[in-house]
Amino acid sequence: MSYYSPEAIINRACARVGLEPLQSLTDDLPGGQSANLVYQGVISFLLGHYPWSFALTTRQLSILHGVQAFAGYSNVFQLPPDRLGPPKKLTTSPRDPESTFTDFTPEEDKVHADVPELYALIPYSARPDMWSSAFMEAATLALSAELVMAIAPERKSVKPCAGMFTARLRKTCAVV
Q1: Model confidence pTM above 0.85
Q2: How many CA atoms lie within 13 A of 30 on its CB side?
Q3: 131 secondary structure, DSSP code
Q4: pLDDT confidence band for 71 (50 / 70 / 90)
Q5: Mean residue pLDDT across the chain
Q6: Gyration radius of the chain over CA positions
Q7: Residue 159: its pLDDT value, please?
Q8: What is the spatial distance between Cα 136 and Cα 172, in angstroms, rounded to a whole number?
């Protein structure tokens, strides 16, 4: 198992709260939740919450043909379905990092504009081997806290531990 695999990350989190390692992310936790649901929820939240440089990518948006443009614009562009939140910026020139396009209207998962090409800087679910070491530590701590909450119905003595993990997570995130 790779150091960067989701299984290895959740097992490091399990070790921090005294749980046995899981064989697979499809295993159920003692509280009945799927380990995969806990992992995906925490990681998606953390990656989408802050514009981490390792979790941003520029994508060319596809023009949607046969879709009525909003507010008099001539084109409708589709935002990537794998983004973790709204675009951080739009541009007509991905080669110029200072270029920002502002004459558009967002509507659901589409962008309406009068340009022939449009690019979006989006947060996405970066692979763990792309994460910074500080983010890896914050993710492991956040997963540890979620594991504590997931097993709380099974163990009556875990509530004092939750505050300890939350405080350490705040300290780690403040460094990042």
Answers
A1: no
A2: 18
A3: S
A4: confident
A5: 85
A6: 20
A7: 47
A8: 10
Rounded Cα gap, residues 171 and 176, in angstroms? 9
* Block residue for tokens 């990656």: 47
Q: Where are the beta strands (DSSP E) in 13-160?
A: 56-60, 62-63, 75-78, 89-91, 104-107, 110-113, 119-123
Of 78, 58, 61, nearest to 123 by C-alpha is 58
Domain boundaries of the chain, sorted by first residue = 6-50+127-175, 53-123
> Which tokens in the block code for residue 79?
């935002």
Instruction: Please classify residue 64 by burial: count the beta carbons closer than 10 Å to its beta carbon, then call 0-12 exposed, 13-18 middle and 19+ buried.
Output: middle
Strands 62-63 and 75-78: antiparallel
Q: Which two tokens stand for residue 100?
A: 């920002």
Predicted pLDDT at 36: 84
Cβ-proximal residues to 19 (8 Å cutoff; 6+ apart), any chain: 29, 30, 147, 151
Q: Give the pair of three-digit tokens for residue 131.
A: 């994460």
